[in-house]
Amino acid sequence: MDPHGQWRTKIEERSADLTDNWWPFVENINAVLDRLKEIEDEFSDLENKVDETLGLIKGIYKSLHKLHFFDKERKLNWKSVEMIGEMLDERKAREEERRAREEQKEQENEEATTADQQ
Fold this sequence. Notes:
mainly alpha
């Protein structure tokens, strides 16, 4: 799509003299209609994106409601939020412990390999 200023200048140049030849007027009308079609397409794309976003928000809300994050008045259920937070913290601690054990095993293996080589 041309910038609006360039498009408007083109329309004004064609409209400068419409005494004998009305064909530039017809071209201007066609240009305006084409421009409106482009704008309509852009609005349609934006509407689709908004509808998609609303659908995602509704899906997230339903999931959070099923997990009892919200009560009937759509207020956060802080007990559920705290429980989920605790579960996530426990998961993180277990993951850190697992990594520490793996690192310790790797270090022991390296030390055993070094001792065998000597």
